[in-house]
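User: Could you check the structure of this?
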Amino acid sequence: MDRKKFRLIKWLITFVPALSVGLYETLRHSLFDIGGFFGEFALSQMGNLITAGLVLVFSLIFGQIVFGWMEQAQVRLASQNRTLRALNRRLEHSAVLEERQRLSREMHDGIAQLLAYVMVKTDTIEGLLQAGRTEEARRELEEMRQSCNKAYVDVREDISGLRTDLLLLEDGGLATVLREALERFGDEQGCEVTFSCEGFQNTTIEPATEVQLVRVAQEALSNVRKHASANQVSLVLGLEPATKEAEQPSLLRMELRDDGCGFNPTQPFPDHFGLTSMRERVESLGGQLEIESRPGSGTLIRVTVPSKLLFNQYEEESKR
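Assistant: Sure, the predicted structure tokens are below.
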């Protein structure tokens, strides 16, 4: 049932009974003042019965109209719920496909390259051993061991961070998850981190938006860990409320900055699959991802996403 019809029913239920009683009493006294047959009829038992019958008929008609509206609203609501469930199933299926695509990219970008590197190193070490150059073979073996250890740490931290952040998201919300992820990153990497949050008091963001933003932040921190060699990392989360005058939705802003080695965004870079995944996630929310960086000057990743505020929406509904 739409909001206008609901308000109409509310006012009708409030005023119709009072108006009916008032109209009946006014008419009865008017007939009594006329006198004669109409005056006697207004005060007679038959007149009261006829009046009660008219009120009953009117109430039945009014009730049929109101309950008819309510039944129609229930039918529409059931249809909308079925549509919503179907859309949710499609969304879940799409999310699974998207995650598979992301994992395939990361496997190609990380594990596949590592395996190719190990194969090349193995051939090199074998050749050195056959030539009797054991010291060089030992150095090559140590380099390969370090690369494997680094890849193992990256995979372990990615999986651990993904599991932990999604569990925290169910309990603490977006700001809490991002702060915990940043602090955990600082502890693991031994760098200075700062987190600031603006405009998120008593606010709940759409769950789909929260999950995607957590994924983007995870990918950005992973890139910092793998490539930036940063000493300082900051994350700013901000929310600009919707304005009725401009009819603009709330704008969510997330910025992650590091003082690492930086890179040229216009040139090919090692972790292009990760940045591509980040951009696709942001664009799926109708947002934009901007990258500002140059060699030796660190990197700034800025995400802006229009987001519906569920808390404010519920608050407005409760006031009506």
